[in-house]
Amino acid sequence: xxxxxxxxxxxxxxxxxxxxxxxxxxxxxxxxxxxxxxxxxxxxxxxxxxxxxxxxxxxxxxxxxxxxxxxxxxxxxxxxxxxxxxxxxxxxxxxxxxxxxxxxxxxxxxxxxxxxxxxxxxxxxxxxxxxxxxxxxxxxxxxxxxxxxxxxxxxxxxxxxxxxxxxxxxxxxxxxxxxxxxxxxxxxxxxxxxxxxxxxxxxxxxxxxxxxxxxxxxxxxxxxxxxxxxxxxxxxxxxxxxxxxxxxxxxxxxxxxxxxxxxxxxxxxxxxxxxxxxxxxxxxxxxxxxxxxxxxxxxxxxxxxxxxxxxxxxxxxxxxxxxxxxxxxxxxxxxxxxxxxxxxxxxxxxxxxxxxxxxxxxxxxxxxxxxxxxxxxxxxxxxxxxxxxxxxxxxxxxxxxxxxxxxxxxxxxxxxxxxxxxxxxxxxxxxxxxxxxxxxxx
Length: 442
What we know:
Elements: H1 7-18, H2 34-39, H3 43-50, E1 60-64, H4 70-78, E2 83-88, H5 91-103, E3 109-113, E4 126-131, H6 141-149, E5 152-163, H7 169-180, H8 190-202, H9 208-213, H10 223-228, H11 241-251, E6 254-258, H12 278-283, H13 289-299, E7 305-311, H14 327-331, E8 334-337, H15 344-356, E9 360-361, E10 374-375, H16 377-380, H17 384-388, E11 391-392, H18 393-403, H19 416-432, E12 436-439
Parallel strand pairs: 1-2, 1-4, 2-3, 4-5
Antiparallel strand pairs: 5-7, 6-7, 8-11, 8-12, 9-10
């Protein structure tokens, strides 16, 4: 496919016109979906790349391939004050997206029936572009990335993803089966869906294709959407980590991070990461980010989507590791609460634990991590003032001394230097788990 008039492009458009995706109810709100809000907040990737905190007010955000607009709604909720622009080739999907944002009271949004190839027609330059579950439909992903790059501001960020050829291999086999049966010749509809259902149910349970792909979800209330978006998905293709990096190089874009980066930690695949066989112990720390991610997927292909952030190449690295911060850096640092934790329930639960002297379980509020993270309730006190506004490091030290004036072991007045050191360690832990953000003065 080289342009939006190709036969395959027409089939894809027809599929989404007849079955707009996703079929999430109009009234469903993402306000309590903390992981979704974390991923789709421009603050997150901007901080990961620049160690700077950005205000989303008046930013312009594109949802490229917006479908029925649920992710557009997520973007609006996650980025207060931002303008949301959505484009999709399906007119029916765009109608639903427009209705969804209006229903939830977002009037600073607009939607267009438009191909990603034609983005310059909008006359916008975007601070953030979300291209979710669309990029893999293009014949040349580098060209699609270039089309988005052309309307991206110099410090802008793109979030996109590709289907994994390794994790999704069995679904691709199923698609070939149903292509051979002629079910993909036109736009799959109810008849084709029933043929898929009857075929898979007719197979013995131990037949590999059925055992590895079929599940109750293909027979439930979401049967039509699930089958269309898997077994009968027009234009679906799979890619590898190396394909992502090759496309980014071709488009002259810089890789920032995997969106679910905590789940791509190669060392977590080993029983004893601190006691690796000699060869691995010497070689793994030296490999590139691309090779590390590629090796992870070869060993453990669990991710259906290869989710990543990228942007224009930056002139020089701006992030200084905390291990290299001077005492002056720490003294002049500003502490922010990540927007993910600005949820009323988080503050209520935190205050309850502090009042009862309980350990506070941050884990259930953390984005995309399986690790158990707890903090002492007395230490949690230092988070409370950051809910209201960002604070200088030394203000938190003073807050600590005010509310814990005596050392619990010696009953002596708390020493400012000791408090400063305790806070340094605590804030690094909280920053590592995305609870707070630390901004160093330039």
